[in-house]
Design goal:
The protein is of the alpha/beta class and 383 residues long. The protein folds into two domains: 130 residues, Alpha-Beta Complex (Aspartate Aminotransferase, domain 1); 232 residues, 3-Layer(aba) Sandwich (Aspartate Aminotransferase, domain 2). 39% of the residues lie in helices and 14% in strands. The strands form three sheets. It has a seven-stranded mixed beta sheet with strand order 2-8-7-6-5-3-4, sandwiched between helices. Strands 9-12-11 form a three-stranded antiparallel beta sheet, with helices on one face. Strand 3, helix 5 and strand 4 form a beta-alpha-beta unit. The longest helix is centred in the last third of the chain and has 23 residues. The chain is globular, with a radius of gyration of 21 Å. It starts with 21 loop residues before the first helix and ends with a helix. 49% of the residues are buried. The mean pLDDT is 96.
């Protein structure tokens, strides 16, 4: 092939969703530079500090020189199993039913690929029609079909709407409760039963479970572990998004298979991170303190948005406000532009979470109260 020959490209990655906000972000940062600056609520990045004991454990673990184990150290898996028992009243075996992952985004993005190697005659990933973009992207990266499942009005998957032909081809189905971005809860018992009846693994993304406001926190494991895997992260509950620590638990056959494949792929949580994660998982007090912070922030900003003509219902879980776009704006991108240009507030258009998300914007209520107070003052002036 000469240097002048065209290169055939089979897959061209689409723009990363949040990069589409760069224009609005730059405008707001410039316009509000002398007035307190941009307030970024577009991404769920924690702004509060993790516990000092966790940072100390990472700094003094002495594990830097050796390779960490891919499944997670015995202490890591025991801490995860202990947290599941305390939080949900569910017993899982730390030896065969729990394993570590490098944060949960990589797990979401890679699991379809790994399961397709196991079941090559299935080529479909089912996922919520309004959801975190990585569920669909994980299917694409696996060379599989990404098939959205419509959501019920009150939240959760409308499983009756799944075409039987799609179910017959399904590698797995994703459920996310509390939902990012809507904050709604799913009937996890129903999804687990539906998957078991059809031999479809159910992957339950529960990384916002600690921030469940309507009723107790739930896990799909409460109704049995056969055919299901629950996925959890320390990013949100412990403000540790930067260290990439998570775990998955459930059906021992699925956990064992994924563990073995991931070991070959070299997916390992760094040793110091594992040491810190053990401390974080063993401590519930810092999570309760974080719950109180998010409760206060959600109530405050929901009221401020409502006063500015952007009424929004508080979420059933999570720390996002899912704000309907008023008729005076043409679409969700227009509302995002207005909030950036007139309020200095960066939020995400609902269209980033699937076509069914259009008509809403997502506000990640992660900023501290002084920054949210600034937003409320600007909203009051802008309206």
């Amino acid at each position: 092939m000469s240097s002048d020959d065209p290169v055939s490209v089979g897959f061209a990655p689409p723009p990363y969703p949040y990069e589409r906000l760069n224009g609005a972000k730059a405008r707001a940062a410039e316009r509000f530079a002398a007035r307190g600056g941009l307030v970024d609520c577009s991404i769920g990045t924690p702004y509060d500090a993790p516990p000092d004991a966790v940072l100390a454990a990472m700094a003094t673990s002495g594990t830097e020189r050796g390779y960490p184990t891919s499944p997670g150290s015995p202490a890591y898996r025991q801490a995860a199993a202990g947290w599941i028992a305390r939080r949900f009243g569910v017993t899982v075996d730390p030896e065969g039913e729990v394993a570590a992952c490098v944060g949960t985004k990589e797990f979401v993005a890679s699991t379809a690929q790994f399961l397709r190697l196991r079941t090559p005659d299935r080529d479909t990933v089912l996922y919520p029609s309004v959801s975190y973009p990585t569920y669909a992207m994980g299917a694409t990266l696996a060379g599989a079909r990404a098939v959205p499942v419509p959501e019920l009005t009150g939240g959760g998957l409308d499983l009756d709407a799944v075409d039987p032909a799609d179910a017959a081809r399904a590698l797995l189905i994703w459920v996310n409760s509390p939902s990012n971005p809507t904050g709604r809860l799913s009937d996890l018992e129903r999804v687990g039963e539906w998957g078991r009846e059809r031999g479809i693994p159910v992957l339950s993304d529960e990384c916002y479970a600690e921030f469940t406001w309507d009723g107790p926190a739930r896990t799909i494991l409460e109704w049995g572990i056969d055919g299901v895997v629950a996925v959890h992260s320390l990013s949100k509950r412990s403000n540790l998004a930067g260290v990439r620590a998570g775990f998955y638990a459930g059906d021992p056959e699925l956990v064992s298979y994924l563990l073995d494949v991931r070991r070959h792929a070299g997916l390992m949580v760094p040793g110091p991170v594992q040491a810190g994660a053990v401390v974080a998982l063993d401590d519930d007090a810092h999570v309760e303190a974080q719950r109180l912070r998010y409760e206060e922030r959600l109530a405050f900003l929901a009221a401020a948005l409502g006063d500015a003509g952007l009424p929004v219902q508080p979420p059933s879980g999570g720390f996002y406000l899912w704000v309907p776009v008023p008729v005076r704006f043409s679409d969700d991108w227009a509302l995002c532009a207005w909030l950036a240009d007139e309020v200095g507030l960066l939020v995400s258009p609902g269209e980033l979470y699937g076509p069914d998300g259009s008509g809403h914007v997502r506000v990640a209520v992660v900023q501290p109260m002084d920054r949210l107070t600034l937003v409320a003052e600007r909203l009051s002036s802008a309206r």
